[in-house]
Amino acid sequence: MSSLRILIADDHEIVRQGIRAIIESHPGWEVCGEATDGYETLAKFSECNPDLVALDIGMPNLNGLDAARQILQENPKAKILFLTVYDTDAAAKTAMQIGAKGLILKSDAGKELIGAIETIQRNAVYFSAKLNHAGFGSNLRGNRRSLEKDTLTPRESQVIKLLAEGKSTKDVAAILGLSVKTAETHRSNIMSKLGLHSVSELVLYAVRNNIVQTTISEPRNSQDIRHEIQDGHQDGSHEGVHSADGSDGSVSSANSSDEADSPVSSTPEGNAA
Fold first, then answer.
1. Which of 12, 70, 94, 103 could form a disulfide with 82 if both were Cys (CB 3.0 to 4.6 A apart)?
2. Are 19 and 109 in contact (CB under 8 A)?
């Protein structure tokens, strides 16, 4: 395994010490910082730029779930491993919805921590086997295949980015040097992996996960529209009226030259119990 820098965030010193001891016993791993609440976690994350954050859900001031949301909003590729005492389906579901790469119970950290971190280091996800006994097991087992493949391949990331930018499947094939059939297969695989059912859902997913940039235009008032109509008549134009930026005040995807790989995730509407 390659080197890995880990930030530990937990409000109990004895827990941090135990996690540090386990991490430092593994060759190539190091603890780059410790935090005792959510706000300190955000500061330490910016300060030491860790490869992974071992994050307690139930911290004071700013809890671990909200801290993770803020981290992932600014750094979509960040890897979060939650540690919790909550043996509930709500905690696990919320962790996945936020975009965390894993969740283990504190009671099992001594046995599962190394395996969880190694799994996440391989760009896979890890959720404690104990969740099978928390009312979440059937859902977890039923979705095991998708959980193991929640990270898009580099090629799929290219395809979803182009599709979200408004390119057709034929355009995607031409840009990436693929056959149209292969591009269609990638599109189908992406939709299946992410549980999407339409292009509009795909675009929304890409925007929410920072796969494409967004532009927000200023809404136009009726006077602006009337002026455009008058200008069009004066110019003798027979084309329909369009706004200068093609927008109506809504969020739309914009072309970007940056390549973005985003873990499969979505933002929950509420916190875990």
1. 103
2. yes
Q: What is 154-212's CATH topology?
A: Arc Repressor Mutant, subunit A (1.10.10)
Cβ-count burial of 221 within 10 angstroms (0-12 exposed, 13-18 middle, 19+ buried)? exposed
CA distance 171 to 109: 48
103/124 Cα distance (integer angstroms): 12
Task: Write the pLDDT tens digit of every residue in 247-262.
Answer: 443 333 334 334 334 3
- Give the Å distances, CA to CA, from 260 to 37, 100, 222: 30, 17, 38
- Looking at domain 4-148, which of 3.30.420.10, 3.30.470.20, 3.40.50.2300, 3.20.20.80 is its CATH number? 3.40.50.2300
Residue 216: strand pairing partners: 251
CA gap 10, 47 in Å, rounded: 17
One-letter amino acid of 251: V
Q: State the span(s) of the chain assigned CATH 1.10.10.10.
A: 154-212
